[in-house]
Amino acid sequence: MLTTRSDPVRLSPADEDRARRLHRESTVFICHDHALFPETLRDMERGGVTAKQLMLSVDARLHADRDTFLASTRGRGYTREARRHERPLEVGDDRIDVRPLGPTESEGFLKSALVAMDYVYWQVERSGGRIRIALEPGDVEAAKRDGAIALVLGSEGSRLIEDSLAVLRMLYRLGLRHLQLSWALETTVGAPQSDRSGKGLTEFGKDLVRELDRLGVIVDVSHLAVRSQYDALELSRSPVLNSHTGASALNPEQPQLLDDDLIRAFAARGGVMAMHFHSQVVKPGRHQATLAQLLDQFEHVARLAGTDHVACGPDYLDLRDSRLWENQGITTAFTMTEHVEDVSKMLNVTRGLVSRGFSDDDIRKIMGGNLLRLFAQVRAARSEDAWEYPRPDGFGVATGGTSPL
User: Fold this and answer.
1) Pick from 155, 132, 183, 186: nearest CA to 54
2) 3-state class of 293 per DSSP?
3) How far apart are CA 309 and CA 231, in angstroms?
4) With contact defined as beta carbons under 8 Å apart, do 72 and 105 qualify?
5) How far apart are CA 375 and CA 137, in angstroms?
6) Higher local confidence (pLDDT), 46 or 63
7) What is the CA angle 211-217-221, rounded to 5?
8) At residue 82, does pLDDT exceed 70?
9) Cβ atoms of residues 236 and 242 within 8 Å
10) What share of the chain is helix, strand, coil (3-state, %, to 5)?
11) Packing angle between helix 260-268 and helix 226-235, nearest 10 degrees?
């Protein structure tokens, strides 16, 4: 066996060669990643990762002092979400105040996302073609052929569009190709993961899904309530993504995870579910998860849904910033699953899938093929039909008086 004391996977020499060959030949494409600094992009190369969905924004100011974070979540269900860590929610706790964003809640989210986008484009422009923005699936395939890195720009939540489909359209023109409808808080889009009232997407949330479909932007339902996810699955013309999740059967503590019925529903609609790598999501408790426990998640979802509907959604964050968990009232540091602590170690996922008996084709699909297929299906289903821009009734109505529109 090719193994060391610290090696999480025991493979024969032939299987070790097979795993390394598969990883080298596959277009490794991961969901949901927040790491945008140059060193983390270099780690993609070290890990044999061609492409990732890069989050430009999240629906709360997690990388800020606690007062700023709380202000950014005010009126968005933070108190209820925090109580989830203390006790089970009662139905009466699940009141959802759906209303337009107030000035203090929306201010700066679009600007912050554009600053992050500018930083990413700065890296692309000075990379000599080594780093690229992927607007189409073919851009990912070309990056694989050329040994480059492809970034699919997205956001963990839609507060950056400030309840405006016009803003969404402009972000699309700038390269946005993924949008998670909401983070774990109440928004004008729909009910969050902690909701037990049975509420789903709002009318604006449904309009947002329709416009994402029309544009050919990936609809991501992670962190939404069960009913909200079913609403999106039923409404979207294209396959839907849940970019960082897993099976609640293996960790009932996490409302972010999917029950078996919802897993089957994703498969029935052609959707893709990407397995989360955070320890507290992979299994109960907050101690570090093992690679075996993460592989159990892959196996459970693949058994129910089929391997066409499984992908990798690590949710890599810069865990040097303790505010990520402290702002949420969590005292134990976040950790990633052992042996896949950063993107440079993605080979261990391929090795683990080999050890669990997955076929070559299944491994290629899970490591990136399924996500690439979904991207292609979403782009192919977009509408090229002309559409009418409704003219506001009066001057300055649409722009708050900054233009005649």
Assistant:
1) 155
2) helix
3) 19
4) yes
5) 6
6) 46
7) 85
8) no
9) no
10) 45, 15, 45
11) 10
Three-class secondary structure of residue 292 per DSSP: helix
Q: Taking residues 247-252, report their average pLDDT.
A: 97
Q: Does this model's pTM top 0.85?
A: yes
pLDDT over 80 at 100, yes or no? no
Residue type for 285, please? G
**Tens digits of per-residue pLDDT, 329-368?**
777 778 999 999 999 999 999 999 999 999 999 999 999 9
Asked if the model's pLDDT at residue 379 lies above 70, the reply is yes
Q: Which domains does the chain have, with CATH numbers?
A: 13-380 (3.20.20.140)
Mapped onto helix, strand or coil, the DSSP state of residue 258 is strand
Contacts of 329 (CB under 8 A, 6+ apart): 82, 85
Residue 77: what are its φ and ψ, rounded to 5°? Answer: 90, 15
Which amino acid is residue 181, in one-letter code?
Answer: L
pLDDT tens per residue, range 166-194: 999 999 999 999 999 998 777 888 888 88
Alpha-carbon gap, residue 235 to 198, rounded angstroms: 17
Q: Tokens at residue 347, please?
A: 């080979």
